[in-house]
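In response to the reviewer comment on reproducibility (Comment 2.3), we provide here a single inverse folding case reported in full, input and output, so that an independent group could reproduce the run without further information from us. The structure tokens appear first.
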């Protein structure tokens, strides 16, 4: 297990050097940036604790990718695998938990800790594999596959929204809506095989429009029940609700364009940092989206006319 974490450390350093960043300076900047952005977030919005937990879960979901864990199962026995996964999740969430403790936010800290350990301990894949019907047609495979892989999270999110409405907790409802957007974002986390791009037989501009139209439409379908319920029970906060809904749609757009701006590679560190900044500086999305669209067109022009 020690060798595994040493290998991960070396791989991170290699990625940083390939990006032209000195690892030692990157770690210092990361710590200072984390403290600065965290402080700014809690100073600027009352939803900070929910957004904070959401960001940590986003990173953990990335580590829970099925192909990655299938590979780890081949390399390690089940007890060692669970220890590795728990250690990974706790290492990722440790800075978040430490900052939450500094703010004396015990409950969000405990929720984050429980989810971190649960995602490492429990395997949601079973030998019983029923075909789960989806409200999405087959052409946009991201939502068909994603919906079936996250079905066990979608229903509890709707239940959480109902609880938020029942107890009159608007912040909890916003958290549920943002979490649903997070699930939609996860469907586009990995670049597909080049064949699935070429198969569209569209030029790069129309391909991007098709992808964005599908993603926004189907995300709208999943988030709409949450937005409607919150709109009915918290009518006095309808403008805040609409603002978060719009930001979620814009961030989804930016994420998809970032994916294809780096295609066929994965989203790089620089793009990830810029997207993270957009969480706190939402106006950046207005500038970023047109830029990423043009860059995506250039990248896809290698495969599409």
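Designed residues, in position order:
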């Amino acid at each position: 297990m020690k060798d595994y974490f040493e290998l991960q450390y070396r791989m991170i350093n290699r990625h940083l050097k390939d990006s032209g960043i000195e690892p030692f300076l990157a770690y210092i900047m990361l710590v200072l940036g984390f403290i600065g952005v965290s402080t700014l977030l809690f100073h600027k919005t009352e939803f900070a604790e929910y957004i904070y937990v959401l960001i940590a879960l986003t990173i953990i979901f990335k580590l829970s990718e099925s192909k990655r864990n299938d590979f780890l199962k081949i390399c390690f026995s089940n007890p060692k695998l669970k220890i590795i996964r728990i250690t990974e999740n706790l290492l990722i969430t440790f800075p978040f938990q430490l900052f939450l403790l500094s703010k004396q936010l015990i409950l969000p800290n405990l929720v984050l800790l429980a989810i971190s350990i649960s995602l490492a301990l429990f395997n949601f894949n079973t030998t019983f594999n029923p075909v789960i019907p989806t409200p999405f047609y087959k052409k946009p495979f991201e939502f068909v596959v994603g919906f079936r892989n996250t079905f066990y999270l979608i229903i509890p999110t709707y239940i959480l929204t109902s609880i938020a409405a029942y107890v009159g907790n608007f912040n909890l409802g916003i958290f549920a809506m943002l979490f649903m957007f997070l699930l939609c974002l996860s469907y586009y986390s990995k670049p597909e095989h080049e064949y699935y791009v070429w198969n569209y037989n569209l030029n790069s501009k129309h391909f991007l429009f098709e992808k964005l139209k599908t993603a926004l439409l189907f995300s709208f379908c999943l988030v709409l029940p949450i937005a409607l319920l919150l709109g009915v029970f918290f009518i006095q906060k309808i403008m805040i609700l609409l603002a978060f809904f719009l930001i979620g749609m814009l961030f989804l757009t930016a994420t998809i364009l970032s994916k294809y701006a780096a295609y066929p590679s994965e989203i790089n560190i620089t793009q990830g940092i810029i997207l993270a900044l957009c969480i706190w500086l939402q106006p950046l999305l207005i500038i970023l989206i047109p830029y990423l669209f043009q860059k995506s067109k250039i990248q896809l022009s290698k495969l599409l006319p």
